[in-house]
Write a structure and sequence with these properties.
By secondary structure, this protein is mainly alpha-helical. Helices cover about 60% and strands about 0% of the residues. The longest helix has 26 residues.
Length: about 475
């Protein structure tokens, strides 16, 4: 029925990867001379022994993976990763229970950025770098899944990005392995450049490393309670703006054209729309909110741009409490949470290309009402949009709204107010981080929520990151039949 050996090989590889990654916070604790390093020793041994055994046993297996196997591997490996990465939060001096640890871990690997911690500044350095690492690897992980797994599984219209013989990217990057290698290289390059810029503009060495990880991944975990407001540095805000935008762009397009070739990059339909939405949103918020922000025109513009881009990209950094800018700013930010960035980026949300496909479908439907017998074709980036693609996007959109509404309803059972329920559900499914209101707003966190609400939100993050259909299909009885 299912080929278990490739699945076991992937699980073993995931466990080994986590085991090796745990050396980084362990070494960090040793460098900063704390006794927390001992908490990492046992998880490292367990992951390497069990994971290594699975890899050795299945190392010669032929990786013939069916569509069903691909669904199982994608969901199982991602959820297992969240469980394994939660262990350091349990065993180190963070005072987190199992649910809180799973919440923080899931928030990290899904690059959501919602946090349980109330006093981040007092956390051990190893935990701070671990949180940043989770987002960095979660960011590149979701790029690979979005480009090479979701198109294969035909999730939410992602088949438009399937690398086929007639795909224009094939002329430059004919093999998937070379594409992955190039994208990972670009991701690492941006991280190093970002670290250098942060460090040279006032961040400490440690802060520069951690924030370079969580900026390019559009994750948003910070090493300070006040996020970027802690630094009080406009240069750092401007640097973060540039790289949050880069993290919101399709990495495949960047790999094909090069980041310096702006004219070719801007030819991509969803990138053009994304830039237009950014400019319009920043302009509207600035027009209404500038009177609530201190400083000159440049400082106000940078502040508005930083927080706007942070929300639409799903990064979740804050430089000041944008809820003080008026209700219209909060409403617009809530809308931007749902929109998200481009497909093939590290961002969450519906994605720009799906918004475009939905509008194309509405336009097509209106034209067919006028000319019912006409043959009308729609295209996206030169590719014909088929009826199956429309159906896939519409199904995804419907499930997205249903999942959001269900999550908000379940949160209301815990007695949370309307704004907290709506914004928490929106933030979780779009992998943004901060919500709205006094509890989870820009100056709050998720620690006051009860265990039930945290479980609801961590599963909502999981569903949003893996685009729902990937997970929900496992609950169909027909999926488990031959």
């Amino acid at each position: 029925m299912f080929n278990l050996r490739p699945i076991a090989l992937v699980i073993g590889t995931v466990m080994c990867a986590v085991g090796f990654l745990l050396f980084i916070p362990l070494i960090t604790e040793i460098i900063y001379k704390t006794d927390s390093w001992q908490s990492y020793a046992v998880p490292i041994l367990i992951n390497l022994i069990i994971g290594g055994s699975l890899v050795i046993i299945n190392k010669n297996v032929e990786l013939k993976i069916s569509i069903k196997d691909a669904f199982i591997i994608t969901v199982l490996s991602w959820f297992l990763l969240a469980i394994l990465c939660a262990v350091p939060f349990i065993y180190t001096k963070t005072d987190l229970n199992i649910v809180d640890s799973l919440f923080e871990s899931m928030s990290g690997i899904t690059t959501t950025g919602a946090t349980i911690f109330e006093n981040i500044d007092s956390l051990p350095k190893g935990i701070l770098i671990w949180r940043a690492l989770l987002q960095w690897f979660g960011g590149i992980g979701i790029v690979v899944i979005a480009l090479f797994i979701l198109p294969f599984l035909r999730i939410g219209g992602m088949q438009l990005f399937h690398l086929e013989g007639d795909d224009p990217y094939d002329k430059f990057l004919p093999k998937i392995s070379s594409v992955v290698s190039k994208i990972v290289s670009i991701y690492i390059f941006f991280t190093l450049v970002l670290f250098a810029l942060y460090y040279s503009n006032g961040m400490t060495f440690f802060d520069a490393i951690a924030h370079s990880f969580t900026t390019i991944s559009t994750g948003g975990f910070s090493t300070h309670n006040n996020s970027f407001a802690y630094f009080e540095n406009q240069n750092l805000l401007f640097i973060a703006i540039i790289f949050m935008i880069i993290g919101s762009l399709p990495f495949l397009v960047i790999a094909q054209t090069g980041i310096t070739n702006f004219s070719n990059i801007i030819r991509d339909n969803q990138i053009r729309i994304f830039i237009i939405i950014l400019i319009l949103s920043i302009s509207i918020i600035y027009f209404f909110a500038n009177k609530f922000i201190d400083g000159d025109v440049l400082n106000k513009t940078i502040s508005v741009a930083f927080n706007t881009i942070s929300i639409i990209s799903g990064t979740g950094y804050v430089s000041e409490n944008f809820e003080n800018w008026g209700n219209y700013a909060s409403v617009l930010f809530l809308i931007l949470m749902f929109i998200g960035g481009c497909a093939g980026s590290t961002t969450g949300g519906l994605k720009i290309f799906r918004i475009l496909i939905l509008f194309k479908y509405i336009s097509l439907h209106l034209k067919r009402m006028i000319q019912p017998h006409a043959v009308i074709a729609s295209h996206f980036n030169g590719k014909k949009v088929t009826d199956s693609t429309y159906e896939s996007v519409l199904s995804f959109f419907f499930l997205y709204i249903i999942t959001f509404a269900t999550s908000a309803l379940l949160l209301s059972f815990s007695g949370l107010d309307f704004l907290t329920c709506i914004s928490a559900a929106a933030s979780a499914i779009s992998n943004v981080g901060p919500g709205l209101g006094d509890i989870i707003g820009p100056e709050g966190n998720y620690s006051p929520l009860d265990g039930f609400s945290k479980v609801v939100l961590l599963f909502t993050m999981f569903l949003g990151r893996l685009e729902m259909l990937t997970i929900l299909i496992l609950f169909l009885p027909s999926f488990w039949k031959n």
